[in-house]
Amino acid sequence: MGSLKDKVVIAGIGHSATDGGSKFDSKQESKLKGVSDVQLALQACKMAIDDAGLASQDVDGIGCAHALDSAAPSHQIALGLGVPEISFQVDNYAGGAGSIAVVQMAAAAIEAGLARNIVCYRAMKTSTAGRLTGHPRGASISQFPDYQSVTGEAEFMAPFGLDSVRMENAMRWKRHMIKYGTSSEHTGAVAITHREHAAFNDRALARQPITMEDYLNSPMVVDPVRELDICLASDGGYAVVLTSAESARDLKQSPVYIMGAAMGGGPLPGYASGFPAQAPEPAEAAAKYFSKRLYNMADVGPNDMDFAQIYDCFTFAVIYQLEGYGFCKEGEGGPFVEDGRIALGGELPVNTHGGQLSEGYFWSMNHLYEAVQQLRGHAGARQVKDAEIGLVTGHTAQVGSALILRR
Amino acid sequence: MEQYDKPLPLPSAETREFWEGCKRGELLMQQCADCGTYRFFPRPMCHVCNSFSAEWSKVSGRGKVFSWVVVHQASPAFAGDVPYVVASVQLSEQDDLRIFGNVEGCSPKDVELNMPVEVFFDEITEDISLPKWKPA
Ligand SMILES: [Zn+2]
Questions:
Q1: Is residue A315 helix, strand or coil?
Q2: Where are the domains of chain B?
Q3: Count of structural domains, chain A
Q4: What residues are paired with A14 via a beta bridge?
Q5: E strand or H helix at B122
Q6: Run of H or E residues at B86
Q7: Which residues 319-358 of A are in CB contact (within 8 Å) with B?
Q8: B54 CA distance to ligand 1 middle (Å)
Q9: pTM > 0.90: yes or no
């Protein structure tokens, strides 16, 4: 089997202006309300291209991920940047696991000689547009006459008031709690740690510290999931530029190398189409199916990670993945997050920027941005000392994707 | 009677038999005509033997709660129903044969893992009866 190890680098990183709510479904005015997602994507891509020391005319590939929306599709970004000739283009319909998967596809394309400099991005407006973009499957008939009938998988969900990703995920989490005794204090520890990290990050949209009492008093949304278990609603975009290790020598920044890449899942994978009723045991985070491939390619193990930027759509998604990526045994993710183990200065700092729970919800392209900052030594007050190797993940209930990066 | 204001299924060629069954008070599951494996939701191919031929078989309508949630903050259509229970019910016919539905007829607090449940049909319109669950 071939290997991507050390062949491709992240040469540039960028982000747009960001804004949004401190709450998962906030409809508060975002200062970016009047700014399109295409503009946010372009801001992020332009900054990443500049950061790499390239010009838009050097770009010959574009990739992004979406799900139920079609926010800022790649052809609009290529048009906006003025890319002279496209050699690689992908719009990956894969949910939260999609962004990191796109970066892998782009890296493989560069290694295979299909393209030279590829920009990967994700721009979202969940603060302004809400979470039901294009598909309000829980809408009432009187409010949304166009959606009074649901079809496909939604036929067997929406009529029962099962109409959001958080409900499906809460159902899986419930089994983890029962099977392993994972508690609200465990998810609370995840929420609190993310907020602590956000305090050191100017871009974080939720920086107000929280206590365990605040967490436990946070209103239930879908028992066992509280408001503070759910990532933020936010507007903004993040981007990276990939190029070959060879061409990176001439560029502006010190390169960050892709050591390992893997994606996948177990039986019945897929976003939405994986009909969660038939999903395997909840503790079977998708990562468990591919983490061995990931570490094999990189030729390192979990203990070599100086940090982990883990896709955190929900607090418990972090716990599943700590198990799936082998930082602890299956079922032991709850106790693992106790005692400051995942905090800055702890054994495995997780989401040093505050993650999607506290920085913003950008499908972990912000996690990738933070990982590169850490490996360049540019993370300021939240710098992990001597960070050399780190993990970045994407995740949905049933599929995942991950990169191991090194400086 | 007030107008029913929640989303309703729009049966397709693939799902029509299921909803016709519900209307008659029968829970039907798609079953592979070659290897006998049940599957749900409805789809064209058997995931075990890849056969395209299937029939609709009446099942017992009995099962147990595989997992569940209690919804406290709902979308607009269901805001008047909180707190309500949505469960994943594992049917007695096959271990991985599961269907979502509301559990009614007991307090949300009384729902438990593996609680035995049986189907009942909530007649919503002339065409649609929704399969729901109550303690068995
Ligand atoms: Zn079959």
A1: helix
A2: 16-135
A3: 1
A4: A239
A5: strand B116-123
A6: strand B84-91
A7: none
A8: 8
A9: yes
